[in-house]
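Before anything else, study the sequence and fold tokens given here and see whether the fold suits the sequence. Record follows:
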Amino acid sequence: MKRIHSIDITRGIVMIIMALDHVRDLIHTTSITQSPTDLATTSPFLFFTRWVTYLCAPVFVFLSGTSAFLSFTRSNNFAASRRFLWTRGVWLIALDLTVINFALWFDIHFNVFLFNVVSAIGFGYIILGLVLKLSGKTIAIVGLLIVFLHNLAPLIPLAETSTFKKLLMPFFGPGAIPLGGGKTFVIGYPPVPWLAVMLLGFASGKLFEREISDRKKIFYKTGLGAILLSVLIRFVNIYGDAAPWSTQKNSLYTFLSFLDITKYPPSLVYCLLFLGIMFLILSAAEGLQNKFTKIAVVYGKVPLFYFLLHFFIIHILMFLILFWQGYRVSDFVFGFNFGRPKGMSGLSLPGVYLTWAGVVALLYPLCLWYGKYKQTHPEKKWLRYL
């Protein structure tokens, strides 16, 4: 199957950015005790270190939907495509709740099960398999309705303790469900809002069948329009995000408040802004070839392989840093602490950026090797799942 260069470039860029967020999560001195978007305690440098990575999840989910569309149209086999979506969806959820959860928490007791972005993509694939016969227009309308209206879910006039709301809300918003025995199931990526992003990606797949020059114009106009609409809705400050912006101690922090939009769940403003940025990147990437795009493509061709490896590498580096700082295994606190001991362990932000650069550089030859192996062994069907 011929790959689309702009998709691999865009996905590669956000994968590089994604590693920064996870290095910060596991290694930054205050990541356990301080939210980088809490305007009462953060700095602009820390805020933007977190904020820029908001781009990653919507791009992953959207382009997963687009890839599903392209695979479906090229195979021209409805039954096989549906079967693949279902099996891949179940595989991704199982992989996320086992291997990826272990890579994230490094807890052999699995006290925390996190329904992460990979699980959200898996859920989306399963639903896509169910609606595969619907028209692209219908799928797009459903996706848009969810994106524009899901922020109304918390306003359903039922008591928070009602059975209906207890069963419904985990599909629309983040939450923690006690499993007993000290174990917790955490929904970090509520499936319905992220399903909407995947549906839009699937419905937009047809755009990639157009000529490059046409795609470039469409992506640019769509991206610019989405960003402008997000700014307008955010400025009105009535609907579209659960966290209204407000005047702060100075103009810079007021601007940060304006940008401090909600990712969990992905609000209307969040989706419009970051999908708009994604479309601008896709537009810029169409027909573009230079040294940077050649590097980005290497990562973009093997997203799941990269995702798995980068967590293990970052977590191992975290432990090496802790040992270097004088901590012992007995000091480690697992569960929500990732194994980090109590206290000010880890590195400052400059150290985080240096570590991030090292992780991305280390992953390059591994991704290059796996991409070539995958390309030269099309007969190995299992490679489609990694």
